């Protein structure tokens, strides 16, 4: 997979290193000569250019990229890069870094963004995830379809503990994608049973999050029916 990363600072280089280890073809773009540190990521291609300029993106052959990552420290630049990548070059997947949480509302499909990654939001979500059992935690927002990646740790008192995945009537527009059980990562099937303490990862429409939390968190009082 060919991936172009706009922004060759610490964040961009770190992403490039991870993706290179996984066998992907990486192009790092930055307009600052001081940011071009080929020796730090020697396996990547490097381009000294302004990623907000069409001529630069033509030179980068952005139309050949499967993914573009706008990873600069400037939200305005990241939005422009995302918009150009999607509208001018038809890049299938555009991921953008959000530096200022106040700008997060802009990072949507109108600006060509498929996935917006807000470091402050992600850090706070990870803190919440570490201390919250039974509370739904939003980890990542997908622009298309108004969907989010959310996590919930199944509490001891959940009515669904011991229930097979296939027997649960999940809310509409909700998909259980992963069960993390101790050190194991499970791709759930209908035959798998939910266990107290499971970390459950869902892709869910935002409008369904409250239903999902209610379903998983509360042990329903059968005698009250």
From TrEMBL:
Keywords: Ion transport, NAD, Potassium, Potassium transport, Transport. The keyword Protein biosynthesis does not apply. InterPro entries: K_uptake_TrkA (IPR006036), NAD(P)-bd_dom_sf (IPR036291), RCK_C (IPR006037), RCK_C_sf (IPR036721), RCK_N (IPR003148), Trk_Ktr_HKT_K-transport (IPR050721). It comes from the Bacteria. The keyword Transport applies. Residues 137-218 form the RCK C-terminal domain. Residues 1-117 form the RCK N-terminal domain. Pfam families: TrkA_C (PF02080), TrkA_N (PF02254). PROSITE patterns: RCK_C, RCK_N. This is Trk system potassium uptake protein TrkA.
């Amino acid at each position: 997979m060919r991936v172009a990363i706009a922004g060759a600072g610490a964040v961009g280089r770190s992403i490039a290193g991870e993706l290179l280890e996984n066998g992907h073809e990486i192009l790092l773009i930055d307009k600052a000569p001081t940011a071009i540190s080929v020796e730090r990521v020697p396996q990547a291609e490097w381009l000294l250019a302004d990623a907000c300029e069409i001529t630069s993106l033509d030179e980068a052959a952005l139309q050949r990229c499967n993914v573009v990552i706008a990873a600069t420290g400037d939200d305005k630049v990241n939005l422009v890069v995302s918009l150009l990548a999607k509208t001018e070059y038809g890049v299938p997947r555009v991921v953008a870094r959000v530096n200022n949480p106040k700008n997060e509302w802009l990072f949507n499909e109108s600006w060509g963004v498929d996935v917006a990654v807000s470091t402050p939001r992600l850090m706070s979500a990870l803190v919440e995830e570490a201390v919250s059992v039974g509370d739904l935690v939003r980890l990542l927002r997908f622009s298309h379809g108004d969907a989010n990646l959310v996590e919930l740790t199944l509490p001891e008192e959940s009515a669904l503990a011991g229930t097979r995945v296939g027997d649960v009537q999940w809310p509409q527009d909700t998909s259980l994608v992963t069960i993390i059980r101790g050190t194991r990562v499970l791709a759930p099937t209908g035959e798998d049973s939910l266990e107290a303490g499971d970390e459950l990862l869902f892709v869910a429409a935002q409008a369904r999050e409250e239903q999902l939390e209610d379903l998983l968190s509360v042990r329903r009082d059968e005698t009250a029916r």
